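Hi W.,

Here's what went into the run:
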Amino acid sequence: MKHFAVAVIAIFVLTGCSDDTPSSNTETSPGGIDYVRLYIPEAEAVAIQIAWPTDWPLREDANQAVPYIGADLILAGGAEGFPASEVVEMFADLQVTGRLSVTSDNVQGSLVAPKENLDKAVEIANAHLRAPLLEQGWFEGIQQSFAANMAEASAAPAHQGFAAVRWGVLGDVPLRRALSVDPPEQITSATPEDVASWHRETIVRNDAKIVIAGAIDAEEAGAAIDDLFAGLPEAGARVAKTPSTDFTPRRILLHVPEANTSTLSFVAPMPPMRDGGELEDIILVSALGEGKHSVLFEAVRTQLRATYGLSAHLDAYTRDIRLLYFGGEVETTKLAQAATIVQEAYASFREVGPPQGFLESLEGPFVAQSEKTAADPVAASTSALMALLDDQDPSVALDLASALDRVTSETLRQRLANAFPAAQDFIIVAVSPDADALPNACVISKPRDVIDCR
Amino acid sequence: MIWVARTFKLTPLYLISAVGVALAIFVTVASGLVSSGWDEAYGRTRIVGNAEPETVSVHLLFSRSGGAENASPALDHYVEHLTWLNAFAASRHAARHSNAWTSDIAIGYWLSGPPEDLPAMLHTLARVFDPITLSREFADQERDIVRREYDLRLANHPDAQAAEEMNAFLYQGNAIAASVIGTPAQIDALRFDDAKAQHMAIHQPGRSSLLVIGEVSQRQVRRAMKQVGFPHQPSSTMEIAPPPFVLGQPDDRVVTYPVADAAPRMIWRKVVALPEPVQFDLLDAQTRLLRDILASTLPGGIAGPLRFDTLVAKSFRIAVFPIDERHVELNFRAEPGNDIGFDDLRAGFEAALTASARGIPAETYARVHERFRSFWPEWSNKEATRDWMADYVLDRASNLRAPMTETELAALHSLLSAQDIDALLATLTGPGRTATAFIGKDKIK
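Here's what came out:
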């Protein structure tokens, strides 16, 4: 009986010691790799998110189409010991997903697996990161597919409008060529050797931001990270700098005689997310241009009756060059009126903020979403990685709701006044079959001509 | 807004469903568990829980059948626009969390908000039944808005244009063959008076279903309905079910969209009739399992011969789904491989499909069948089950079909068999109506 009592006490003490609540921990693997571990006790899956820094899209000596081809090729083309056709089925059996995507600042990878399959998933993923086959046949297929799809996308009027804005803001720099994938010859001139070179200098062991999330302890997490990065080379310093920008307000009309419809867009810069205020931005952009009673919808559809819908968005050329843009398809004969009304509606919105009750109406859904994010290793690790990339605390991923507590009508008003561009500070770009549809606009016939619009 | 349930790209997770009998099944939530039963007092009202206690959504659904005989196919979508404006637009709060849609068989309106707003949401939703009192000028302008929607969805989208043309051929003679949004000429010909009459014909309490998704009890919903005088929905006045479908004579059609800048691609669709009807949810599961087998690189799949052994297709997507208990559609979309023409792509795909139809190897079937468990939630996980069931019931209700219970759904995996999958595949390679769209320029012409 005495022994039983001791055992009970021991169990109680041990239970008390193990803190089984969600937590964020900054750790270093036995192999010396720094990472953030989000402990989510109820999670069945483990998610690993990685961001490898890159300056490839900013470099004059690089082909800016290569990262897009390379990311697809690594994923689809098989790896040492893992032929492409077998990997597809192995991942399906294991219920594993792996992704690789390209941005201007980094290459982002994710691996999600049930915890019991994590070891095998890591082994396969490591082979693809370390020794992808990069075979000629797969390369050519991806290259041609990319070229054909970009040609189609680039012909869309709205795409041409945004291409014109990039010419105006960035000029003919590598970043513009990367974002627009223009000129298209970048794609057709890329070679497997270019991809190998990009892979060698990008998918490396050092400097990556890493988050691992799930019901996983430090020992398991460290081992998984080491196995995932095993055999990857070390990279040298990245030196390219983000280019300067020119957001001088101007009115542009890209004349596309064969276009079936007209589009109207407003674009202006926003402060980078590392300065904070992201939640305010999301709420404000939602009030401005999301849903059937947003400011823009009310102005242009309900009042002017000129569109099926306008919407507002936040975007970024790089993590330092962040944008607010809004627009949509507009009836050609009402384009000029729409431009004026949008500008007036935005000016009024910036002055008075969202309507009364708007912030309160978001609270329930936001809290629910916050709880889901905290319980979901994929969502939580993604959120934490974004925070890391902006030099913020990754633990925010486990308690997004508390961030909403700090948002008030007053902080929204301050954000509008201090961070949102003034109504007259936007680049306005229309794409239309009617060259006269937007008065006082600099009329161009192809996107690059915008550099002459001063 | 238009919601197309049957097209390949926009197919929701839980496509179409069940049998025309079970319209009066009533699903409710008791302590977070989904169970079935009738609500005699309120007819076709369904309540299903979700895992978000802070939000309740209310959905009012109507069958499109029963309107004017010779009405333009585009009329119901215009009516939906006007009805939403008439019912919701005056309320800024309501409009912020609401929307409306028209599919090929139904019209739906929904609102969402915190549980305490349930009476207010039902009060607003009930305005859908009110006669349209918008000004003629405003209603005429809304017709122009529908034109803008057409521009947005179809004007520069050859895939969407091809889908409309293929629907008209594949479903010829059936209600779902008609375009929901219509052509520009049909939109321009819409008249406000016709819309008002169509609204009154379709938007009747006896023709509607109400679905409440949230952690609210049957008692709360009843009380709120009574409080706001929500129109009673007699469950016996009209059977709500998808329109009947009869497959036309076997035939084949090719449509081309040689758009200069378009990436070359082929869309191949075929509709076949089954020899015997199959319960809808079981058929839904069978078609999804068949799809997973065909998409695989395993023996019996088509990914090997098309993408890995030889590069006939650089990429492809495939879907197989039931139209009703007797009809199944296969939808295949592919980019031709390097130096592969459209004819070779089509021939390669059809040859691969024919080879698969010789019989799925037992090992392949067993492997994919085991994976297929993840199509359903872990039934022991109540939170995941609630979320899944909320989506599932909404889909079934939106498609005018009755949902199965958890217990019935949980039994489906064991009802799947290799013989049924082989039979389904054999039927898909037999007589039917086939439509093929070639978009972009043929590489070898």
